[in-house]
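Input sequence (637 aa), recorded before submission:
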Amino acid sequence: MYRFHQTKVDTHLFMQLQDLTTVLAKNEQLQFESSFGSFIDLTENKVTAARFWDRLPAETQEAGAKSDVILRTLGTLQQTDVKTVQQFKENIQDSQLPKFGIQLLTLLEDIRLEDAIRKQRPGTKQNFTYRQNYFHHYFTTQLQANITRSYATDEIFCMIYLQLFANTPDPDFPRAGEEQLEMLERLKPDLYSVFETKHTRDNTALVENIVQKMQGAGYTDSIHEYFILPIGHVESYEKNTLYDELTRTDPLVNDDEQEETNEENEYFDETFSTWHRENKNDDRKQNFLQFELEQGTKTSMLGGGARETEDGDQAMAAIQGTSGQSQQNDYSDQETLTKEENTSEEGSDSSFGKENQHAQMFTEYAEIPTEEDELQYRQLAEEINPFKIKLAKTIQLTLEHKQNAPRTNLLFGRLSKKLLPIFLDDSPRVFYKKEQESKEFDAVFTLLIDCSASMENKMEETKRGVALFHEVLKELRIPHEIIGFWEDANNVTNTYQPNYLQYIQTLEDSLYQEHGAKIMQLEAQEDNRDGFSIRHVTRKLITRNEKNKFLLIFSDGQPAAAGYDQNGIVDTYQAVAEARKHQIDVIGMFLANGHVEENDDNLMQNIYGKERIMVPDVTALPEHFAPLLKRLLLKVI
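Predicted structure, token format:
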């Protein structure tokens, strides 16, 4: 079973950063993540912002994370020389200060890139100002801590940063050690040239010179790691820049040549051209073949010339375009050789989110209730009966009132007794209509219950709320379904994540079969992959014809499953947003054990927004659930 510490994730900011990454990098494949340090990694298709921004106030957090994304997509991606960084990383490992050297190169390279981006995109200045203000405060604090702990190399690094971004030409460091102050003086000529660098190689030369001086003075490597190398898997790239790496053309997969025997082969030295915009001829509507060659065998056939078109080409093309019955083998019944996405109920495809690419969905149906289940459910029904009667009566009275209440102030219909508007208004409305509307509710409900292991001590009380849901909607003859969901953590592998939807009540038999006792079969299982389950249920709701569609989710906290720790909240938020785009009302209900923590409320807000109900004590679930049902049912009437 997978359980993770609850991480505060601002889903709205996360989506902004994801959009910013895609737009600035001009690559839809790149995904945004929060990680230790900021870097761009094309092998894993991701851009990261440092996780420490999450602990800061909202304005600084947003500006800092955006500045990381901007530096990596507009700076590192396009302007950092990868070959130079590769050589530097290899060389610095032989020194006594590899960690210090990498951090210093990242700092100096970010300074160079930030200056270029500010000029290119003036709108980024505010984000970089927040970044500099925070780092100035941070390294001031770190400097004092490193002085106290006698971390000499870390002390030097902090002073270098404060020297580069000082408001005065010669900032004072009163508590710094004499040796560190003397070393800083020796490094100042190098530091003063930082803002004049034009290329990555200029910064690597500066760093190598600084490292050499510090090695000569006997300094050892730094303890802390404030920055990391801005390029992930830097050793795996072949081009000079990451942008070139994105747009490179790979060679053929194979590199073999076909052996030719001219005596045995008859060939003609005639060439055919493929389409290209450079040889496009608008005067003649030519037919050319267009393709991209990725794999093949090299032969001795020559090319390079293009045959001129003739008057009969278009006529022949029309003749060749006709179809007829083939006399050869019929392959229409054979399976296609191309790869197809698995869109079956048991499979997963891209529409279920990248976090769920290895998740597989399986469906289970509750068994026929036992006598013990029937007895327990009857007792449960008696307990929630007062809530059911009160709620059903309120809805019925409201419905009767609406049916009997006439529609007034109409331009045609029955003549009203209030005729004064005829003399006062230019366009009097003195008619009314009294119509009998249908007593059927044009609505459908789905209730999803989190069956993760953390629901173990809440499931019995949860069943009371589920029973109230079922009994009220059955009384009002509204189609509804009840589904438990979980992930089987015991059988999870790196490429296989089995998930289950357990149908307690289906839409098809919710009004015609008395199987409420199946609710007693709900049990706590393993993990919960909320976004994946919500997407599956949404697919089915979309196909329903009812005007009003409601999806209610009972949960007790953060989604937690294999590989679902950080982005589980974001993935669930995206699943909820997609459902709402299809006019499905999605409401999350949080079930607590006595009181609601602030982190829990923030978590539910990040996923469900305003449409959330926080239940402090699961024993009071019917008291909180009844008003929600009432509000939703009155919306339908």
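Checked by second reader. Residues 172 and 325 are 90 Å apart (CA to CA).
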